[in-house]
Write a structure and sequence with these properties.
There is one protein chain. By secondary structure, this protein is α+β, with helices and mostly antiparallel strands. Helix content is about 20%, strand content about 50%. The chain is built from three helices and twelve strands. Strands 1-2-3-4-5-8-9-12 form an eight-stranded antiparallel beta barrel. Strand 6 and strand 7 (about 170) form a beta hairpin. The longest helix is centred in the first third of the chain and has 32 residues, at about 1-35. The protein is elongated. About 20% of the residues are buried.
């Protein structure tokens, strides 16, 4: 009986020893013949797939805009008031030749009682470059330059000051006569001036809805050449702002892109 049990145990052990390498061989063969794809294939395929480039024809339409900042500036008590019509041509969605026609006026009293008035049109011509020309979102970031000119008449007056006792008009005491003493009247109307200046432009235009855009631009203006009366320079230059060698201006405009048929 004990011999039968020992023979049975030996048979089981031998069977296990024979089956283990066979099972291992079967497992190895199955795993080795199974087709496998490297885990990085999908990633490589996605990286190799490039987005199609955005291309535009030479002509992409004409846009017409209106400057609202200059108009609002005057209504809120700024140095001058006015507005401008801005027309640009879209070339390859990258280059934008632009013309600006505007009109501005100023009526200013200085602290020393001098009254300055002027009103006239102005003209700007330039080019903008769209930094976002390859983007699909429709927004535009511009850098550009302008050449501008305005020819205008201006008035500079120092009206008399009423005498509170005798009621007679007195000359403005803020304008002393350096030769004879006392004060002198100052009345000069229709003096002529012409100013040329350049502008460096940085601006953003955002699509609001359909063909309607809104945007702003910051202008650094540099006076190039000017002529004015020997009796005094103007206080304000239409389109340029306060008379100086340079100044900083802002334009906020609403723009509409005119519909056109693409070829």
């Amino acid at each position: 009986m004990g011999r039968k049990i020992s023979d049975y145990i030996i048979s089981v052990v031998l069977a296990l020893l024979i089956s283990v390498p066979f099972y291992g061989q079967q497992s190895y063969d199955y795993s080795s013949t199974r087709p496998q794809r490297p885990a990085t294939d999908k990633g490589k395929q996605k990286k190799e797939k490039k987005e199609p480039e955005v291309t535009y024809p030479l002509f992409n339409g004409i846009s017409v805009g209106l400057d609202l900042w200059s108009l609002g500036n005057g209504l809120l008590g700024g140095n001058g008031t006015g507005s401008a019509v801005i027309v640009d041509v879209n070339l390859k969605h990258r280059y934008f030749p632009v013309i600006e026609l505007g009109y501005a006026a100023s009526d200013k009293w200085s602290d020393n009682g001098i009254h300055c008035q002027t009103q006239a049109p102005y003209f700007r011509l330039g080019m903008d470059y769209n930094v976002f020309y390859g983007k699909k979102h429709g927004h535009m970031l511009f850098v550009g330059v302008r050449y501008a000119v305005s020819s205008f008449n201006y008035d500079v007056n120092s009206p008399s000051i009423g005498d509170p006792i005798y009621g007679e008009g007195l000359d403005n005491p803020h304008l002393p006569d350096d030769i004879w003493g006392g004060s002198v009247p100052y009345h000069h109307n229709d003096m002529k001036s012409t100013q040329h200046w350049g502008e460096l432009n940085l601006g953003l235009r955002t699509r609001v809805w359909g063909n309607l855009y809104m945007g702003w631009s910051v202008r650094y203006r540099i006076r190039l050449k000017d002529t004015h009366s020997p009796y005094g320079s103007p206080w304000y230059v239409p389109g340029f702002g306060r008379y100086d060698s340079s100044n900083l201006g802002v334009i906020y405009a609403i723009t509409y892109k005119l519909p056109y048929k693409k070829k």
